Structures are given as structure tokens and as C-alpha cells.
Amino acid sequence: MRASVHLCARPLSWIKYRAGVLTVTSVNVNGLRAAAKKGFVEWLAETSADVLCLQEVRAEPDQLPAGVRAPDGWHVVHAPAAAKGRAGVSLYTRREPDRVRVGFGSAEFDGGGRYVEADLPGVTVASLYLPSGEVGTERQDEKYRFMGEFLTHLKDLRERAAADGREVLVCGDWNIAHQEADLKNWRGNRKNAGFLPEEREWLGRVLSPEDGGYVDVMRALHPDVEGPYSWWSYRGRAFDNDSGWRIDYEVATPGLAAKAVKGFVERAATHEERWSDHAPVTVVYDL
């Protein structure tokens, strides 16, 4: 379990959060070094986000350009995987966190670069990269083990936060499309990882008021639409045809979810302008 923390001076833009608006963006960068060369740096310079959650960073901090590793105006924690070139999650915050935690207390998964959380005023924000799985292989068994442990953590985290008068926001690549509206070709993917009945049932438990107690914020904001999708395969013309999956979620405790006023996917204008196979998912919370 390792983390690299980089702290910068608090910028004036943090006044937005103090004034009552919190903007949170989550994106799987599909390799941060590659994304940095294809447009991530320019996107980062323009984003209005107060918190940025990255997944699948796939790099050690010292392998990243300085402007990505510790950009001006951001406090950054990188949690790379013990296996080099795999997974990896990061959190960028305009304000210095009060506390940072890497992993969720799992002997098997805490070194895997799949979870990091930070305490900010009134809210704990986490970046999650849930295993993708693969039917009929150990990777799917690993995914199920992760899901079992992680649901327990989510419940404990929610209860601890409530006792402290805090909200929780877990952002990331959950690698599960919960409903038919969450992927274009749902009929052709019913036996594939990411849309298996067991996976969807588990995510339903996370989002059940009687069980996990969390809210899918984007779906709450867009209840009657297909998507909005956040991942498109690089194969074929999936992006051009908007044949995608919605697997990147901002999942919040009900008190925070009720304060979400706007949510959108920052979809690139063209296939050539993409810097990842995922697009940033952004939600604005009026605190």
C-alpha cells in the first residue's frame, strides 16, 4: 500500500467550494502518461472541477510529467498499484485534504491501486477502480471477491460518516452497467462481464436504501434517458455511433445526492480528440 502526496498552495478558485458549490469530475484516463500526450494536460488547465478522481493511471508518480504529477493549484495523492503498469488511482483536490486513506482495509486489494479517499470539509471523496473481470476466468472471481469486501466497506464508511455529520461520494470506474439504459447493446452483453446478473444485483444492493444506502447521482439527475454513456470501445465506430456503456459513476449518500444540480459527460467532439476511451463525468453540487 503506497501513496505519493503532493501539496500546493490553496488557489483562489477554491473560494467556489467555500461559497457553497462543489464540482467533482471522475474519469478513467486509460494510462495517464498517454493521456497527458493526447490532451489531458490541456483539459486539466481548463477544468472548473474542485475535485478530480482518476482511475487506471498505470504509472508511478516519478514517471509522470511534473505538470501532471503535481500541477499548480492542486493537492494530489497518487496511489499506484504494487504491480507496475497496472491499475492506479489518483485524487486531485483544490483544497488540502484533512485526511487521506489508501485502500479500504483489504489484505488482498489494498496494494492493487484501486481505491483512495480523502476527507474534505463535510464530505469524504473517493476514487475507485473496480476490477473489470472476465467470464470464466480468475479475473471474474477476483471481481466478485472485491465486490463482497467493498460493499462492507461502503456500509461502514456511510455509518462512520453519518456519525461525524459527513457525506460520502465514491467516484470512479465501477465496471458495471446497472440497467439496460446504461449500455447501448445490452442484449448482446447479457453474458459478458460488466452486465452479468450477479454484478447488476450487487450494484443494486449498493444503491438500495435498505442495504448500501447510496444514490447513483447521474441516474437521479437523468432518470429517463439512455446513458449518458461514458465509455466507448476503440474498436469499430463505437464512439461515432454512440454505442457505449455507462460504467463511470458518482455514487453518494442521499444527503449529498439531493444537492446535485447538474451532471454531464464531457464527451469529446470527435474520435480524434479523445485522450481516453472514457470521458469525464462531472457533477455540480450546490452545498
Write a concise keyword list for the protein shown above.
287 residues, Deoxyribonuclease I, Chain A, seven-stranded mixed sheet, six-stranded mixed sheet, AP_endonuc_1, manganese, magnesium, double-stranded DNA 3'-5' DNA exonuclease activity, metal ion binding
Summarize, please.
This protein is of the alpha+beta class. The chain has one domain: Endonuclease/exonuclease/phosphatase (Deoxyribonuclease I, Chain A, 4-Layer Sandwich), CATH 3.60.10.10. It contains eight helices and 13 strands.
Describe the structure.
- The protein is of the alpha+beta class.
- The chain has one domain: 4-Layer Sandwich (Deoxyribonuclease I, Chain A).
- The chain contains 8 helices and 13 strands.
- The chain has helices at 15-18, 32-38, 40-46, 66-69, 138-163, 197-206, 217-221, 254-257; strands at residues 4-6, 21-28, 51-55, 75-79, 89-93, 99-102, 115-120, 123-129, 167-173, 215-216, 248-252, 260-265, 281-286.
- Strands 1-4-5-3-2-13-12 form a 7-stranded mixed beta sheet. Strands 6-7-8-9-11-10 form a 6-stranded mixed beta sheet.
- Helix 5 (138-163) runs parallel beside helix 6.
- The relative contact order is 0.15.
- Mean pLDDT is 94; it is low at 5-15.
- The record marks 248 as: Important for catalytic activity.
- Residues 26-278 form the Endonuclease/exonuclease/phosphatase domain.
- GO terms for molecular function: double-stranded DNA 3'-5' DNA exonuclease activity; metal ion binding.
- Its cofactor is Mg(2+); Mn(2+).
